[in-house]
Design brief:
three-stranded antiparallel β-sheet; 3 helices; alpha+beta; elongated
Length: about 260
């Protein structure tokens, strides 16, 4: 009897296990709800992206005792943000990792046992399915311990919950007298019959060169994937994670996702 019962359990396990495994999505992209953790996860070829509950105007918490917000869920294998209202007991303390309203730094704003991450959206406000976008949704704490949410258009696009940072360079050269020696120019000295100017470090020319602080001369800008420390070193004028990146590549990604939605 005991042997027969064991065989039945084994057969049932063999039959049921494939059903459980097949119930998990295998083809990306797909969406999984995590209600106990307060977020939904979107998976694509670049990996998971979490969409958490949040609020649109948390200052209303002190006026009405509740505020407009949203919670995330999966609907037809897509992320869905549903409007909701939450009472003020949901908030106890407000804390953030990026030190305030910082559009160029990805941050996490926490309240009680939940948190909201800064994330990227398109021009129409729809969350991105990957990690790129045109605007950033920035969360931060105000002086009254409220969570404030702002949407900010990123001049050079949004990646991983932060605007792409491009350091501006002062491209105005300094006129120098004709007999100025090279030691008197803090930058790159350019002297010919019609022009005597001292160009600052980082100055970029139309010929795709820049004034280098290594030897105070103009050198060619670097191509994609070359090592860099400043944006002006790259022909794309974009240095990301110590490598020259192709800015047009990011723009192509933005346009491709826009066409989908």
């Amino acid at each position: 009897m005991g042997l027969t019962k064991g065989v039945i359990i084994l057969l049932a396990s063999i039959l049921i296990l494939p059903i459980i495994i097949s119930a998990q999505p295998s083809d990306r992209p797909y969406c999984i709800d995590n209600p106990s953790q307060g977020y939904s996860s979107w998976y694509d070829e670049s990996g998971p992206v979490q969409f958490r509950a949040g609020c649109m105007n948390c200052t209303a918490i002190y006026k009405t005792g509740e505020f407009p917000g949203w919670y995330s869920s999966c609907n037809d294998n897509l992320i869905k943000l549903t409007p909701s209202r939450t009472d003020n007991s949901f908030f106890v303390n407000c804390d953030e990792t990026d030190g305030g309203m910082k559009y160029f730094i990805e941050g996490i704003t926490s309240y009680q046992n939940n948190s909201v991450m800064d994330f990227c959206v398109w021009d129409d406000g729809k969350p991105t399915t990957g990690r790129e976008g045109t605007q950033v949704v920035e969360n931060y704490c105000d002086e009254q311990n409220n969570i404030i949410t702002n949407t900010y258009p990123c001049p050079y696009g949004c990646v991983d919950g932060a605007c792409v940072k491009v350091t501006p360079i002062n491209d105005t050269p300094m006129d120098v007298v004709q007999n100025l020696q090279k030691e008197g120019c803090v930058g790159c000295l350019f002297v010919n019959r019609t022009e005597n100017k001292c160009y600052p470090f980082g100055y970029r020319t139309q010929e795709k060169t820049f004034c280098s602080n290594t030897n105070s001369t103009f050198i060619e800008q670097k191509n994609k994937d070359a090592f860099c420390e400043n944006n002006f070193e790259c022909s794309s004028n974009l240095c990301k994670e110590l490598k020259c990146a192709n800015l047009s590549f990011f723009k192509k990604i933005f346009n491709w996702f826009k066409n989908i939605f």
